[in-house]
Amino acid sequence: MDGERSVWRDLADFAVRLSAAATLEDVLRALTDHGLRILGSAGCGLVTRAEDGGWELVLATSFSGELRSRFAHEPHDSPLPACRAAREGRTFLVPDREAAHAVHPRMADVVDATGRARWALLPLRVAEETYGSLAVSWVAPGPFGDEEEELLAVFAAHCAPSLHRVVSRHRQDRATAHVVGLARALQRGVLSRLPAVEGLDLAVDYRPVRTGASIGGDWYDVFTRARGDLLLAVGDVAGHDARAAAAMTRLRTMLRALAWDSDDGPARLLDRLDAAVAALEPDALATAVLVSATVVPGGGLDVRWANAGHPPPLVRHPDGHVEVLREDGGDDLLLGVDASQARTEHRTVLDGGSLLALVTDGVVEDRESDPEQALLAFGHTLQDPRRTGVQEQCERLGQVRDPDVEDDRTILLAGVGHTPLPAPDGPADLPPVEAVASSRVVVLPCAPGSSAAARRVVRVLAGGDGWDEDAVDTAELLVSELVTNAVTHGRSDIRLQAASSPDRLLVEVGDENDRLPEVLPADAGALSGRGLHLVQAAAHAWGAHPVDGTGVTGTGTGKVVWFALHREAPGP
């Protein structure tokens, strides 16, 4: 009797623990640490409704990543008893493989794939609604007794409300993240990939502010016009919502159309753009700075620019002094205020070794300084482009954020007298890649297919840099584990960075879930930590560290998990 009371007391404690769960990770930990012990089982799984009306496996403490992906989604009419329990509100008790096959041959496949011979599939009900099912498994076959059936039924009844709350919240968060991610992807998709221009080294860092589901009105564009000069533009449409992003897209598209085959200079282009805004975007209010740049013999840059209420261009000259390109009289009116007011065009020639910077308000806005001081303060953080790579500078500057300033941030740099390195070739279906020498940075979506994309990135980089096949295979395996973990536990896009040097291959995987991974004691019945055991065994070095203020998108918090492989020195 004492043992029975202990089980029921443990069950009550488990229900209390679940009631405090805030995330799916908390639920998984409660099931692994307490639920399995209460039921004497080897694993638990949770099946809930999918958005398309089918069923999805949300949690499984006994499934590897491969098995989870195999059973991740089932149609609404799936014959698997876990889906039938959720669909029909019935309990299925499967004592052995023979019984599993009698329920349906696919259930026998589950037994074979998992090594679990005995299963209980229990409906999860809240009020009168069945929203999913709980799957409990044991390694050894055997009948179910009356007391065990009662325990299972009470276990499911206690679990259902808390699980429903957490899963519903998770689905809502995931849906919101999907919408925000889609909006950001669409926004980034209309922004330029920088062209390769002889005599210039170009780099950009673009970071929308993260306020709820906000996306921004910042925009930039860089392209070579039909007449041969390079046009650089940075602007900001008022607002931080979807309407601002849509207006930004249309404004940028109008500028491209107006400028592509025109001989107009920056001032005339801004005037024409303002007229188009007045006619086609009457409610839009935007700032912009427009620069026409032509490389001159000897490595200098002939710069013509016009400004419509935007922070003016900055120049770090080769001798180190910083200049704000603002003529007497100040800057001209914003776009959308008065299209009858003409803009003024300015001109200067920059020497080789100069660094030209175009930025938005979020970069230089400082509530304790006037705009001119803030611009100069930012300008003094610019470094000699001949000694510090422009791309590295751009990324470093983009990570510096005032927490009190909630605005989008765009930094566009042009190093004068330099030729950018071309991006290495790779498979056409790879995500957009920023590459410098033997390194790659890729932002992947929080989706199952990202593991395969990560493997391709690592194979292209490592294989192209002379790593042997064994090392490439190992790197592919390990990056797949890290990205799978990020997809499973993360709530954001995933930043993959891979770099190859003569003696080391370093791979970093970052997401915006700030909980660091743990290497748990080896347990065939537990999911968490299995991939890290593999990383620990196969990598020459690995680790994880929190990231504060520089998440995947450059803001927020998160973590980076990394591993390194060392290239063996050649023998004597």
From TrEMBL:
It comes from the Bacteria. The keyword Hydrolase applies. Residues 19-173 form the GAF domain. This is SpoIIE family protein phosphatase. The lineage of its organism: Bacteria, Bacillati, Actinomycetota, Actinomycetes, Kineosporiales. InterPro entries: Bact_Sigma-Reg (IPR052016), GAF (IPR003018), GAF-like_dom_sf (IPR029016), HATPase_C_sf (IPR036890), HATPase_dom (IPR003594), PPM-type-like_dom_sf (IPR036457), PPM-type_phosphatase-like_dom (IPR001932). It comes from Kineococcus halophytocola. Residues 201-416 form the PPM-type phosphatase domain. It holds the Pfam family HATPase_c_2. SMART domains: GAF (SM00065), PP2C_SIG (SM00331). Keywords: Hydrolase. CDD domains: HATPase_RsbW-like.
